[in-house]
Design goal:
This protein is an alpha/beta fold. The protein has helices at residues 3-15, 33-41, 44-49, 58-68, 109-127, 141-146, 154-161, 187-192, 196-212, 238-252, 263-271, 283-294, 329-348; strands at residues 21-25, 51-55, 74-77, 90-93, 133-136, 168-173, 176-180, 220-223, 257-261, 277-280, 299-303, 308-312.
Length: 350
């Protein structure tokens, strides 16, 4: 675990009078979600850190536990008890959406429907403060479309149900921290979103997130859009027209931000310790370096919404689902980071 998350987690453990209650959504049951959840919730260090409630299928989680060779004390809930009542073992809540037969590795509309509805219920309970935050297992975009939903993924569902007009997808993995100014959209649309106002908001969201993690320094670098950050306008004008003015506006607000920098070198400079976070201009610009450097330990965080949400930074991995070989590292990191953000949120309201 990186030092930043460890420091924040230590603060979470010392500052909170009780363990945070976290909704852990199973995602697509036919992916690796049930297996990694079973592995992680069998770990005493994770159970000491939070009070998890699995939004998913108890029968599937029981079978997944057998596959990965762990024993869980599973309890099926009809509803969430009050916060004054401690939960025993690993409680599981299907919210009236019982999953079908566990069929690892297969795309099925029913699995897509359950993944979406479990997430919706988790969002509802978090907004109602029945739980403190959400940690999501992977869902499959094709699966949720097969179930009749138009959402592109978790981020869009979260933004819709929390009425968040200005949210950001971000990735945290060791020294690599990235906030994207756009998420799941065609590249042509992503380029159109490279505007001064949107970049300013992204920098502000990034600055706030670093502060919530307790970083002593919050050095933010902004990547360019074009090769060589436009090469003084020879390779594009977005840097001069939109990105540089956004950086200057944020500098005047006292934010430690600089750029735009050539996208092919700025992430290496962050890894080397020069920056604490990079604002990326589109999805793949930020995702590729994170997944290259820390594929198994990255955490997806939705910023700009009124609730805490972290997630694994990988998909359903149908090709290995049901084999018990999926690594749980990203889920462990996601739970730890969620606990850190919850602790920060509670301190700010104290």
């Amino acid at each position: 675990m990186n030092d930043t998350i460890q420091t924040a987690v230590s603060s979470a453990e010392s500052a909170m009078p009780r363990k945070p209650r976290l909704a852990v959504t199973m995602g697509d049951i036919n992916g690796v979600g049930p297996e990694i959840i079973a592995r992680v919730l069998a770990r005493p260090d994770v159970m000491e850190l939070c009070e998890p409630v699995v939004f998913g299928s108890l029968p599937v989680l029981r079978k997944a536990s057998q596959v990965v060779g762990v024993q869980l004390e599973l309890h099926e809930l009809d509803g969430l008890p009050s916060r004054e009542m401690p939960l025993q073992g690993v409680p599981v809540l299907d919210c009236g959406y019982a999953a079908g037969t566990w069929n690892p590795g297969h795309l099925e509309p029913r699995a897509g429907q359950c993944a979406v509805e479990w997430l919706k219920k988790a969002i509802h309970h978090t907004l109602a403060r029945d739980v403190d935050g959400i940690v999501t297992g992977p869902l499959n975009k094709e699966g949720i479309h097969a179930a009749g939903y138009d959402y592109l993924g978790h981020t869009e569902i979260l933004a819709d149900l929390t009425n968040a007009p200005d949210f950001r997808m971000s990735l945290f993995a060791g020294p690599v921290r990235v906030v994207h100014i756009s998420s799941h959209c065609p590249l042509t649309e992503a380029i159109a979103r490279v505007t001064c106002d949107r970049i300013v908001k992204s920098i502000e969201i990034a600055h706030d997130a670093l502060g919530r993690l307790g970083l002593a320094r919050r050095r933010i670098a902004v990547a360019g859009l074009n090769p060589h950050a436009g090469e003084a306008g020879i390779l594009g004008t977005e840097e001069a027209d939109e990105i540089a003015p956004a950086v200057e506006r944020c500098q005047r607000k006292g934010i430690d931000v600089s750029g735009p920098y050539p996208p092919d070198t700025v992430f290496k400079r962050m890894v080397d310790g020069e920056f604490d976070l990079v604002v990326a201009m589109y999805h793949d610009q930020g995702h590729i370096p994170v997944k290259l450097i820390a594929m198994d330990e990255g955490v997806n965080v939705t910023l700009g919404i009124p609730i805490v949400r972290t997630s694994v930074d990988h998909g359903t991995a149908y090709d290995i689902a049901g084999t018990g070989t999926a690594r749980p590292d990203s889920l462990v990191a996601a739970i730890r980071l969620a606990a850190a953000f919850v602790a920060s949120k509670e301190r700010s309201h104290a």
